[in-house]
Predict the 3D structure of the following.
Amino acid sequence: MAIVAGVDFGTQSVRVSIVDSGRGSLGWGVAEYPVKRDQRDPDFATQSHEAHMNALVAAMNAALDAARVPGSSIEAIALDTTGSTVIPVGKGLVPLDDYYLWCDHRAHEEAALITQVACAQRLDAIEACGGVYSSEWGFAKLLHWLRHNPEKRRSLVAALEHCDMVAAVLCGITDPDEVPRSICAMGHKWLWDGDLPPKAFLAKIDPLLADARESLRGRYLTSERIAGTLSTTWAKKLGLREGIPIPVGAFDAHWDAIGAGIAEGDVVNVVGTATCIMAIAKEAGRIPGLCGVVKGSIHPDYVGIEAGLSATGYLFEALAARSGKSVAELSQGMESFRAGQTGLLHVSWDNGDRTVLVNPSLGGVTLGWNLNHTAQDHLFAAIEGTAFHTRVILERMAEHGVPINRVIHGGGIPQKNEVLNQVYANVLGKPVLVPERSITSLGSAIFAFLAAGTFKTIEEAQKALCPPYRVVRPDPSVKPRYDRLFGHWRSLYFSLGAPDSDPASIGGILPDLRAVAAEARR
């Protein structure tokens, strides 16, 4: 029997869960931190490292109080974070700037340049991340920082992912050669394919990247390996015992998939601020447009496959805010809505496209407006739109041999939005499994238990700790309507979203949206 702490750094808050190997969750604590935005630049999104670490202390104190256990009883601590969330550091791994948050898209020009050079050079690693490099990812953000901070360039010692930075800080690591580098982060976001791209390739993108390999040195490891042990300094701040093991970190959604009980044949949709869509397989090849196919990134013994939507909760919150309401307020009564009844078709590019077009320059599109439409209609259409987008991604996975036997909904939104769960089941034509309780930070706890030696395998820990599911079944009576709408949605997605697309006939879409809406109302 053992007690561990699982830490999950999300976009706006950190959650610490105290978990007992026999009794399950004992208590948890949450502390928030702000996202720094710039009204002049919608692509700007940063966060303070100091705010993150202060929030970790506050959340740990709250979790220990809620669990009613002494900090000395914690046997290990593990942590996951958002990604690609990047911080440049100087000597002693001291931050030189704020984090570039995962949803900071200022590096779109740099990402396009990386894609251009990688494709011209036929870099194999670009195919491993779908053939297009994203402005959300590490090299683009590092190059953007180097270009816009000439006075700080000489001080740069390393560029770190958030998960690696926090692990290094807690372990008291200050030598860049000793930094634990998450294969999850490096494989999906940094073109790491057993090694980083060669110096000549990076210099061809921009001479400022010539020394990038040196900035990314460290120990590249999967998450069953140990990053280090908790330092005296941070043991005192967190109220824990010094010397407890800390495994190599990873991205929050990837560990949420572990906490959701992922196995081969499953797709886990972690639906939150954005959506991360993940699968694991013993073998998997390149998949065009997906964010990465990386050995050991989710589960150390499997190939991790990642895709996603750039905005889900963010999209719903933005639509609700325009009406002066919260999402919960705007959703009241929406359970009575029928498939396609609004007559609206929303293409969910409001924060760009992450998969499968990988184009941050796209914008949201809503077709079918009339004078009677309401903000609630728009929200329902947006939920349908994110479900259609998810279907496109699952179809791309299936086309390339990824087995999809079950769909599991992780993340915070499925725990409180039954309309979304039902719409997704109807659109995907598959039962959706929803864990009976929140699994946020449970994946972290599972890796903490592995570090403590409590469980020998991930599967053993999942069997002991993962909650059962409730099943949301598709309504077969609405399948014809959603198949019809999806045909229109898919056509618009590829014809509007790709600059080299073939001509598409769209003249029948608006009349058919009205016809579907009339059918739904009947």
